[in-house]
UniProtKB/TrEMBL annotation:
Naturally occurring in which organism (per UniProt): Torulaspora globosa
Protein name (database record): CN hydrolase domain-containing protein
CDD domains: nit
Pfam assignment, any one: CN_hydrolase
SUPFAM superfamilies named in the record: Carbon-nitrogen hydrolase
First and last residue of the signal peptide: none
Amino acid sequence: MSGISRIAIGQLCSSSCLSRNLQTVKYLIGKAVDKNVRLIFFPEATDYIARNAIHSQQLAAKSPRFVEELRTEIRELCDRKSKKIDVAIGVHLPPSESEVVRGEQRVKNVLLYINYRGEVVQSYQKLHLFDVDVPNGPVMKESNSVQPGSKVAEIVETPVGKLGLEICYDIRFPEQSLELRSKGAEILCFPSAFTMKTGEAHWELLGRARAVDTQCFVVMPAQSGKHDTGSGADASQDHVERISWGHSMVIDPWGRIIAQSSLSNDCSSEELIIADLDYTILEKVRVDMPLWEQRSAASRATDQQLFTF
């Protein structure tokens, strides 16, 4: 890739209402097309934020329709505007029939890459699940409701560069990002729904670290604000209040923030954040500091041993 490539982040505060979330997504894609954006990124769980694990399983049954309607909208919008825009979006998918037969009821947390024709070009299932007890914060055990993926996604050839797909908690495991860089990545994305506690402490730090580690552009689309998950939590599980950190940003390969949200972290409004990726910066960073050429055979072998699933 060379020259300037325009991307955007669609920051939003998803609710438990898929149709409402889809309308927000459509609105942001329309704005991005008018600003000549070639690829727009949406956060993790854009289709819905649930009250708890049982609620998530119920809502996931509606996610395939969410995806199909979005694919149709992308195709029709691009035809109507005579422009092209691709979409990377985090959604849930229900377990397959064979998985249900085996007793697997948990949903899948996936990142879909949809091109301007409405075709799903790539799907990545989140590898690392957020199972933590945050000091003075919520106890989160994503594995109660989400089944983990099993492999790193292949690089996606996009109109704005070679893209490596990751999701949220994956950002804490640099081996995955290094593997994607080794596969040719020029951009890494981390669609997320960070908690307030971890976001304040580590959101920017982790993004800039992965950019410097890999000498890639890092795109961080975030859920932001207090989520409306509806009323009537299931009696079998407590209703967990969900508030996301926000602060979507784009970071260049030198670790500089080149675009970010202008909204406060308690704001639940949607926002379009535009960034122009300058590939002369990427090329200069990689030439001036040739990390990949300098990495010894021993270090590469060590990385391979560490990066196992």
